[in-house]
Amino acid sequence: MEYNIIGKTVPAVEFKLNTGDSVYTQSGSMSWRSNNVKMETNTKGGLMKGLGRMFSGDSLFMNTYTAESDNQTVAFSSTVPGTIVPYDLTNTDGIIGQKGAFLCAENTVSLNITFTKRFSAGLFGGEGFILQEMTGSGNVFLEVDGDEIIRELGEGESILVDTGNVVAFEKSVKYEIETVKGFKNIFFGGEGLFLTRLTGPGKIILQTMNFHDLAGRVINMMPSKN
């Protein structure tokens, strides 16, 4: 399936569809489409799957767009300034994404929920217990705040990341939370109490901006009524 990522500040991914081609996204992500692209809204997999996706940061209902003739287009935009990253799941075991990482996918991709394997990771990781699992074949498109950083971790290689800067990682990557060491580092370092440790082997996708932190700074700068 042909696609083109367009725009820089708030990009969109535009698909060129032929008869019968389908892509799906969460509710509200479509920006434009050709006249002969049919939209169908459903829970995609049943109510329980829909509820699970809702708790993992996506909508209860999904919209599937199917071309009824050749050379049709449909486009989906990111919700914040950043990047759209395509990831081909073909011949892989799939990837795990943080809440809100999923933007859209080919209809051959399955989006499910999964849970952090460690209680501490869900309790203290800042993203909760529920993550997104993307498997199948074809492309899934991830929404990244700021710019994407893609790295391949070797066997046993680890990296410590602020939890809000983790986008997704291959299922072979180990995910756990650890406490920042040192009294002064915890209270005066400005990095919070916990960090995410990702340990290879496998590919990881990070983002340079944490939109929740940015939103917090903007709110703090807004004048208050006295």
Report the mean per-residue pLDDT as an integer. 82
Low-confidence stretches: 119-128, 183-190
Largest sheet: 6 strands, antiparallel
Spatial ordering of strands, largest sheet: 5-6-3-10-13-8
Helical fraction equals 10-25%
Q: Label the overall shape.
A: globular
* Strands, total number: 19
Total number of helical segments?
4
Order of helices and strands: EEEEEHEEEEEEHEEEEEEHEEH
CATH classification class: Alpha Beta
Distance between the termini: 56 Å
For CATH, the homologous superfamily is named as Mitochondrial biogenesis AIM24
Total number of domains: 1
Strand content: over 45%
**CATH architecture title:** 4-Layer Sandwich
Structural class: mainly beta
What's the CATH topology name? Double-stranded beta-helix
* Radius of gyration, CA atoms, in whole angstroms: 19 Å
Break the fold down into its secondary structure elements and pairings:
Elements lengths: L1 E5 L5 E6 L4 E5 L3 E4 L3 E6 L4 H9 L6 E6 L4 E6 L4 E7 L6 E3 L4 E5 L2 E7 L3 H6 L5 E7 L2 E7 L2 E6 L4 E4 L4 E5 L3 E6 L3 H6 L5 E6 L2 E6 L3 H11 L5
Antiparallel strand pairs: 1-2, 2-7, 3-6, 3-10, 4-7, 5-6, 8-13, 9-12, 9-16, 10-13, 11-12, 14-19, 15-18, 16-19, 17-18
